[in-house]
Specification:
about 70 residues; two-stranded parallel sheet; globular
Amino acid sequence: YGHIADIYVAELARGKGVSRALMEVALNRFRTMGLTRAMVTGLANNPLANAAYPALGFDLVYSTYEKRLDD
């Protein structure tokens, strides 16, 4: 599968289809590579991303939890 670590769109460009366009470029590249699945990750506390990814056709597959050990 192809992995997209995160997408960042500058605040002034948000709501203009930029993330959708970036995602389509990445997904099309994955297709040309013969890949059949794509995964995207983002921070759990990013409500914009957490709303955008399902709207782009991604399904929530798993959650990752983190514990800081330096506190």
